Amino acid sequence: MSKGKVTAISLIVLQSALYGLGDPISKAAFDTVPLFRMLTLRYCIALVVMLIIWGKPIIAGLKNAKIRDWIVPVLCMGGAYVSNNVALLLTQATTVAFIRSLPTVIAPILAFLVFRRHYGKKLIVVQVFVVIGLYMLCCGKGGLGNGFGLGEVFALLAAVLLAASLVYGEKSLDRVDPLTLTALMVFASAAMAVVGMLFANEVQTKPMTITVWAIIIYLAVLCTIAGYLLQNIALKDISSSTVAVVQCLCPVMTAVFSLFILGERISMFGAVGAVIILVCLVAAVYLDKPVEDK
Fold this sequence. Notes:
Layout: H1 3-30, H2 35-64, H3 67-90, H4 93-100, H5 103-115, H6 121-139, H7 150-172, H8 178-200, H9 210-234, H10 240-246, H11 249-261, H12 268-287
Helix pairs in contact: 1-9, 1-11, 2-8, 2-9, 3-7, 3-8, 4-6, 4-7, 4-11, 5-7, 5-10, 6-12, 7-10, 8-9
């Protein structure tokens, strides 16, 4: 395995850990701050921080990029994470993490339909077992056993949009640098959050605490800036399908963090599912080979 591929996979593992903590603490913050108000704070803070630190290279990157080079993955990424947070408000964090991991199946299908990219049969088998493991993990925690409601619908929408952002983002990165693409994704997320806040007519009844501000800062800097950037850098060296498979580690991380933060306990059935996921991730990494579009 090449050094670049190992580094790229490590970046997605780190991203999964950041998101694994981000999901349960987001639910904790929702008890104080209305959904779209919190998302507006999160993404606007992230955008301001990026412009302060990397303003000049981002502007230079925008000048060299054409709208058609980035518009699809940017809108899909923004929509994916806004939808994901709506889902977190409406259902359990582990359920959201499960459904959001479905790009492991959706991404290769979309890559085939859009770019006629073929996918190895062995990896398809691995992905089937990943989904089984994900289902066991979340059902073992009482996830989808509670039914398929509005929260699950938003989580599924997030999964489809995330898969599209990975597939189209992989192509966009041939023409747009990761930092510029990340800044555009953050901007799109912020714009969607602001629109949601304007139309939602939310009312905040509890005062902002230091803990809530700390959560928002974590979500802005580590989940948004670092999370988006890690994914875009990784997509330069590994395929969107591989990224989607490795991101299935996120529900395992979410299950661990949810245990300590939200008291959502994992059963033996769920633990077996987590082990299946980990084994499949290792298999997928070693089975994955570079692919060419037709």
